[in-house]
Each structure stands twice: as C-alpha cells, then as structure tokens.
Amino acid sequence: MVFPAVIFLAISPSTHLWAAAMPTDLAIALGGLALVGKGIRPQVRTFLLLLAVADDFFSLLVFGAIYGSKLHLADSLSTLGAALLGFTLGQIKIIQPARLIQVLNPLTTFFIVPVYVIYQVRSGFSTEITNGTTLGFLAARVVGKVLGIALFIWIAHRMQWIDDRKGVTLAEAIGVGVLAGAAMTVSLVIGEIAAQSPGEMDQLRSGVFLSAIISVILGSVWLRLRGRVHASE
C-alpha cells in the first residue's frame, strides 16, 4: 500500500490520485491465479486473498479520511447492499462456502469484471501514456506492489514470523506482488472522486488498464514457473 503511493507521488507530485494506486483488485488477481492452474500452493492463494482484502480495507479508510466530504450515502447503497448480501450468504448453513466460491468466482472474473471494463473503456481513456499520471500509476503498481510485498515477506522470514517450510516463499511473494499490481474497480472508484478533471481521469484509466494487462501476464507466468520448480523439488 505505502510503496505504490510513495512512488506515484515521486513521479507525479502534483496528482490527487495517489490513493488510487494503493488497493489490490481481488477479481483481477484471482483471474490471474486461474491462469496459473493447479500448480500453485494453497498458501499462495490464501496470502493473495488476505492481501487484497487488507489493501482494499485500509485504502478505503485512508481515502475516506481524506475525501470524506465528497462521499454521499446514496452513492454507497449498492455497495452496502452487496456487502450485506455477502454477509447473509455466509450465515446460511446449507450453503457450502467453497462451493459458492467455485460458482461465483468465474462469474465475477469472466462476466462482471469484463462488463465493467467495457463500460470504463466507453467512458474514455488517454492514448498518450507518457504523461505523469499514467506513468506514475504504472510504476506504482508494477514496481511498488512487488517491492512492498517482497520486503514484507523477507522481513517476516528474517524475524521468523513465517514457517520457512509451510509459509509463502520470497519467490512466491514476488509473483503475488506482480499479480497484485493489477488494478481496476477500487482504483477507478477512487479516481472518479479524486480526479481534478476528465482528462486526468482518462489518464488514470490508461494506467489502470495497462497495469492490469502487464501484471496479470507477468504474475501468472512467474507463478506458473514457480509452481513447476516447486513440483520438481
């Protein structure tokens, strides 16, 4: 969270969109894991899930503290309704969580997210990718996420907070960090409120789409290769 925001501000210090660089898009990241297949260890998936939830939670807390005056309850009703539905489904005993995830995850990854992407593309994006906003966002996501996550796991291993045999390895953390660089929904929501002009929002959209493509490709390839190495050991 911190590294992406700092890198974004270092490249584009005048931007108001630095908070958009912090969250991790869970649906996009899980789609990347789906490309990896069954070669990935369960610990890696669990780590990515926890990372995405924590990233989004704290990113929205920071965003709410800074831009709280621009938020309106009426705009949040659909989100609150979805959260309430998710909580309610989790309390129904006859529904198996694992089975529910198997059913909903492909629907989210291959239908809901693409529809949202198409909607955003129609809203417009900048074809000039050398501007500070687009480059800053790209560097923040593709580089900042990897640095932050890899450093955290390295410290955790050094301090023996993680079991070297059962926990996520540094190589796996790098792959998760690359995959976590994929941005989409939360970053765009933050951008729509924080952007100072339609042109700045278009530049952010370009960075969001490029970071998602680059991160999913590089992250899934890295984790697939790591899965093969782990299987051969």
Automatic annotation (TrEMBL):
Lipid bilayer topology: Multi-pass membrane protein
Localization per Swiss-Prot or TrEMBL: Cell inner membrane
TM spans (from-to): 17-36, 48-67, 73-92, 104-122, 134-156, 168-195, 207-225
GO process terms (BP): regulation of pH
Keywords tagged on the record: Cell membrane, Membrane, Transmembrane, Transmembrane helix
GO MF terms held by the record: sodium:proton antiporter activity
GO cellular component, one term: plasma membrane
Keyword tRNA-binding: no
Name of the featured protein: Unannotated protein
Organism of provenance: freshwater metagenome
